[in-house]
Amino acid sequence: MPYRVVWAAFLAPALALAQSIPSTTETRLNNLEAAVKSAQSAGDNAWMLVSAALVLMMTGPGLALFYGGLVRRKNVLSTMMHSFVLMAVVSVLWAIAGYSLAFGEGLPFIGDLRFLFLNNVGGAPNPDYAATIPQQTYMIYQLMFAIITPALISGAFAERMKFSAMLLFSVLWLFIVYIPLAHMIWGKGGLLNAFSGGRIPCFDFAGGTVVHISSGVSALVCALYLGKRIGYRSEPMKPHNLVLSVVGACLLWVGWFGFNAGSALAASPLATSAFVATHFATAAAALGWLFVEWIHNGKPSVLGGISGAVAGLVAITPASGFVKPFPAMLIGFLAGVVCFFMVTAVKGKFGYDDTLDAFGVHGAGGTVGAILTGVFATMSVNDGLKDSFGKTRPLGLIDGQPGQVLNQAIGVAISWGLAIVGTLVILKICDILVGVRVSPEQELDGLDVSMHGEEGYNLET
Amino acid sequence: MKKIEAIIQPHKLEDVKEALKGIGIDGMTISEVRGHGRQKGHKEVYRGMEYQVDLLPKVKIEMVVADDRSSEVIQTVVQSARTGKIGDGKVFVYDVAEAIRIRNDDRGEGAL
Cβ atoms within 10 A of the Cβ of B86, count? Predict the structure, then answer.
């Protein structure tokens, strides 16, 4: 009996200790895991919120300044308004239904209404897209892309489209062209989504097809449908303030880090890789344009330098999260050269009035970039694509996958097709409902006075 | 009274103003104008669009002086504005019928 007492006296605390050791360790491990997760989420979320803000900055003031400086003085406000008003209009539509139709899992071509009115879009992550950031962050980040895309088109119809028609066009275009395309490439179950079991896996890291081909090709259709500005090629139509354009282009360059590196959806090494690729491609593209222009015209122009930079930013967009720095430079350089010839020789030959070269830069640069993504994409940069055994899959031609170039071409063809047909139908609807073009008197007065009742520069006051 | 109207190279404006001040002339009206005579302009290219720019920036100086001072003023303007190259500009001289000082209704050369 005394023995037992002694034993019990010994055992009880020992047993209690033995039981409590695993439970304490487990709790601490759980706490540690939760802390690690929350730290990663904090880091990723911080970067993604900054990225979202950077992408918004590309539209206003970036694109507004870039485009605003390129038009004549009498149209500076109306051109800046095209970008600015979309920051408001697209945002409201995105919250109501846009986000859901683009990113709700629905059909291969369009999403469903599960996120209508941002229902279920809150602080919890959506692991289908980004497992470490609140879905609200993902939603607002994607919104910024939806804002800039229709704003890019405005470069083609600047100086002659009615404001009411421009608003109606942009709203319809968002739902008929942008959202289906965004769903196909990035949405869960989208037809072309390489990372979500799409039938035709197409690589588009940050929007070469969704943003730039779609807007650039639609811009060409707009330019052809609206016709030339009065006095095109007979009256001087010089950019009224290239200083604004230089500031705007540089803001685009900076903002594009949010666009491309942000598309990693995390503050990850892949984000760094996309940041680096974006920067080098842009530098090479500016030099590419300047170089051919210098040879061709005898003088390297500032407008040429900034146009080349934008062409490089466009071309590296689909490739940014898939390619190494030197292929990125090559893509940028080629885009600079190709876009130079598009806006000089090709536009000159066919004579369409793409006012600010939205097609020559975004359509052409986007196409060059999308195809070359299939050539230079490599699993040593992006190991996100796994085969059925969970092994990292090779990506582009240089990984020994020549078929990817064809996939890219199909993605490009679908984007071109949807942009052409969609834009034509939408323009027809706008023409019937409100009429797309301003009257000749309004055009000669300038859209600032005739559409908005104000002037950009009141120097005498 | 004579009105002397000189169209000169913009970068010579300071020289001309200094020279005129040197002979006691400090009333003048300046405007920035554009124009060309025999001088050829230059070519500007914006994304492949070529523009021949032949109206070049000039400065127009206008002043009205007493008859007995006009030849001295003209001489001063011509000397100080000259670079010897095409594009230096021109001087035109007009007779002036009347001059009125708005402040106190002075008339003629006394109003200058």
Answer: 10
Q: pTM, whole model, 2 decimals?
A: 0.88
Strand pairing class (B29-35; B42-46): unpaired
CA distance B34 to chain A (A): 16
Helices (H) and strands (E) in chain A — how many of each?
Answer: 18, 0
Q: How many CB atoms lie within 10 A of CB A166?
A: 26
**Contact residues, chain A to chain B, C-beta under 8 Å:** 233, 236-239, 297, 299, 301, 303-304, 307, 343-345, 347-348, 357
The rounded mean pLDDT for chain A is 94
**Number of structural domains found in chain B:** 1
Taking the C-alpha atoms of residue A59 and residue A255, their distance in angstroms, rounded to an integer, is 9
Q: If you count DSSP H runs as helices and E runs as strands, how many of each does chain B have, helices first?
A: 2, 6
Domain residue limits, chain A? 48-452
When pLDDT is cut at 50, 70 and 90, the band that residue A31 belongs to is: very high
Distant-in-sequence, close-in-space partners of B38: CB < 8 Å, separation ≥ 6: B86
What single-letter DSSP state applies at residue A154?
H
Smallest Cβ–Cβ distance between A236 and the set B45, B48, B51 belongs to B51
CA distance A250 to A61: 11
Residue of B57, B54, B50 lying closest to B33 (CA atoms): B57
Range of the domain at B43: 2-111
CA distance A354 to chain B (A): 12
d(CA A391, CA A398): 18
Query: What is the chain A residue with the closest CA to B51?
Result: A236
Question: What pLDDT, in 10s, does the model give residues A168-213?
Answer: 999 999 999 999 999 999 999 899 998 887 888 999 999 999 999 9
- What residues of chain A lie within 8 A of the CB of B32, using their CB? none
CATH classification code of A48-452? 1.10.3430.10
Place A461 in a pLDDT band, splitting at 50, 70 and 90: confident
Q: Which residue has the higher pLDDT, A16 or A257?
A: A257
Assign residue B9 the CATH number of its domain: 3.30.70.120
Answer whether residue A114 shows pLDDT above 80.
yes
Selection from A44-53, A190-199, B53-62 with the highest mean pLDDT: A44-53
- Whether B61 contacts B10, CB under 8 Å: no
Amino acid at position A204, single letter: D
pLDDT for residue A7: 59
Local structure of residue B84 (DSSP, 8 states): S
Put simply, whether B102 touches A (Cβ < 8 Å) is no
What are the tens digits of pLDDT across the range A60-93? Answer: 999 999 999 999 999 999 999 999 999 999 999 9
DSSP H or E stretch at residue B29 = strand B29-35
- The rounded percent of chain A whose pLDDT value lies above 70 is 95
φ/ψ of A284, rounded to 5, equals -65, -35
